[in-house]
Amino acid sequence: MRYTNHVVVLLAAALTLSGCSDTKEHAVSAPAAVSGLTLAAITMQDLPETLEAVGTVRARTSALVSARIPGTVSLLQAREGDRVRKGQLLGQLESHENVAHATGAVAAIDEAKRSLEEAQARQKLADATFARFKVLYDEQALTRQEFETRQTERDLARQAVSRAEARLRQTQEAARAAGTLADFTRIIAPITGIIVARQADLGATVFPGQPLFTIEDEAGYQLELAIPESHLRAVKTGTVVQVTIDAVGSSFSSRVSEVVPASDPGSRTFLAKVPPPGHGVRSGMFGRGSIALDSRVKGFRVPRAAVFERGALTAGWAVGSDDIVRMRLVKTGRVTGDQIEILSGLQDGDRIVTAGLDKAVDGGRLQQTAGGKP
Predict the structure, then answer these.
(1) Confidence (pLDDT) at 49
(2) Chain centre to alpha carbon of residue 148
(3) Residue 7 has what pLDDT?
(4) Record: fold of 64-93+185-219
(5) How far, rounded to the nearest angstrom, does the alpha carbon of residue 236 sit from its chain's CA centroid?
(6) Does residue 28 come out as left (phi exceeding 0), alpha (psi in the -120 to 50 range) or beta?
(7) What fold, for 33-59+220-366?
(8) How does DSSP assign 280-292, residue by residue?
(9) DSSP conformation class of 231
(10) What is the rounded CA–CA span in Å between residue 151 and residue 259?
(11) Diameter over CA atoms, the chain
(12) Could you please report the per-residue DSSP string of 255-309?
C-alpha cells in the first residue's frame, strides 16, 4: 500500500515538472513584441515590365599612346592622374639606330650638294666651250666632228646636273624620313585629358605598337549598358533609361544616345550608350539601367525608404495577416520619384514597414497600442 502511494507521488511530481518545462519552452519561443513601426498597405497592380541591364562608364573620347619605333624609355614626365594638354611632351625614347640614320642622312645631303655644285660648274664650262665652238663652226673655222664633240660634252654636263639634282632630292627625302623617325622618339599627348594608365617604366625597352599611356577626355562620359540581343528592337536611340551609379549615389533619368547593333558573340549582348551626368562620374564605374518595355507584369509600388540592402541582397520588412514581422528578399524594378517597384518577394495584402526599420525584428509580433496602432 505504501508502495502505491510512492508511485502516485512520483507521477504527480513528474507531471508538475513537465508542466513547468512546457511553460519555459513557450516562454522562450514566444515571438518578441515589436512596436514603433510605420506600416503601409500594399496592393498588387499592373506595372510596366522592365529590362534591367548593367554596364560600365567609359569616356566618350580616349587615346592610346603607343611606341612608333623600337627604343628605350629615357624620360617620363607624366603619371596616372595627371591632366595633360594636346601636344604636351609625356616622355622620350632613346634609339641609337634612328640617331645614326639621321646623322647619315645629314652627311648624305652635304655630299649630294657638293656633287651638284661640281656638276653645275662642269656644265657652265661645257656651255661656254660649246658657245665658242659654235661661233667657229658658223664661220666654218671648225670641222663638224669637233663641233659635235663639244655639243655632246655640253649635253652630258647638263645630264650630270639633272642626276645630281635628283640625288639631292632623294637624300633630302631620306633625311626628312630620318627626321620623322627621330621625332617618333618624342612621346606626345594626342588629346587634352587625364592619364588613366601608364604602361611603361623608365628604362624599359619598347617596340612599335606597345602601349605607353592611356588618356581620356574628361569632357564627357557615357554608360555602356550590355543589352541582351533578344531586346534589340526594344532599345533605340532616345529610349528612356533610369540610370543608377552606385559609386556616386546617383540615380537619374536619361536617354539612349547610341546603339551599337553588332552583338558580342560571347555574351550575346549589344551596347547601348547612355550619357550620365558629369559630376563625380569616372571611367570604369559600375552602373545599372532600367528600361520600361511595352509588356506588363504584376507587382507593387512601395516607398523607396522601405527597401534596404543587406549585404548583396535587397530586402524589406513585411507584416502578414498574423501580425508577424518578416524580412523578405525582394526584386526591385524602376524607381519613380520616391516610389520603387517590387516585382517579387511580397504578397498581396501584406503591409510593409516604411519607417522605424531599425526597430523591426525578424519573427517579431506586431504590438498593438491602445489606439490600435503598432
Answers:
(1) 76
(2) 78
(3) 42
(4) OB fold (Dihydrolipoamide Acetyltransferase, E2P) (2.40.50)
(5) 21
(6) alpha
(7) Elongation Factor Tu (Ef-tu); domain 3 (2.40.30)
(8) T--TT-EEEEEEE
(9) G
(10) 75
(11) 181
(12) E--EEEEEEETTTTEEEEEEPPPSTT--TT-EEEEEEEEEEEEEEEEEEGGGEEE
246: DSSP letter: G
Q: Length of the chain in residues, anyone?
A: 374
Take residue 21 and report the three cell numbers written for it: 518545462
Residue ranges for the chain with pLDDT beneath 50 = 1-27, 369-372
Q: Which residue has the cell 532616345?
A: 238
What does the alpha-carbon distance between residue 234 and residue 49 come to, in Å, rounded to a whole number?
A: 12
CA 298 to chain centre: 36
Among 345, 358, 363, smallest CA distance to 302 is for 345
Reading the block at residue 60, the C-alpha cell is 566618350
CA–CA dist 59, 55 (Å, integer): 13
What tens digit of pLDDT does each residue of 6-56 get? Answer: 443 343 444 444 444 444 444 456 778 888 889 988 888 887 777 889 999
Q: Kindly give, in sequence order, each residue whose CB lies less than 8 Å from that of residue 129, ignoring residues fewer than 6 positions away.
A: 150, 153, 154
- Phi-psi map region of 319: left, alpha, beta (phi>0 left; psi -120 to 50 alpha): beta
Q: Is 119 helix (H, G, I), strand (E, B) or coil?
A: helix
CA distance 335 to 304: 8
- Which residues is 186 bridged to in the sheet? 92
The whole-number pLDDT of residue 369 equals: 45
Residues in a beta bridge with 94? 72
Which letter does DSSP use for residue 177 in this model? H
Whole-number pLDDT of residue 274: 92
Q: Which residues are CB-neighbours of 315 under 8 A, at least 6 positions away? A: 307, 308, 309, 327, 328, 329, 330, 345
CB 323, CB 281: distance < 8 Å: no
Tell me, letter by letter, the H, E, C secondary structure of 302-352. Answer: EEHHHEEEECCEEEEEEECCCCEEEEEECEEEEEECCEEEEEECCCCCCEE
Q: Do the Cβ atoms of 308 and 89 come closer than 8 Å?
A: no
Q: Where are the domains of the chain?
A: 33-59+220-366, 64-93+185-219, 96-183
Give 301's strand partners: 341
User: Full-prediction pTM beyond 0.70?
Assistant: no
- Residue 95 has a pLDDT of 74
Q: What is the gyration radius of the CA atoms in the chain, in angstroms? A: 44
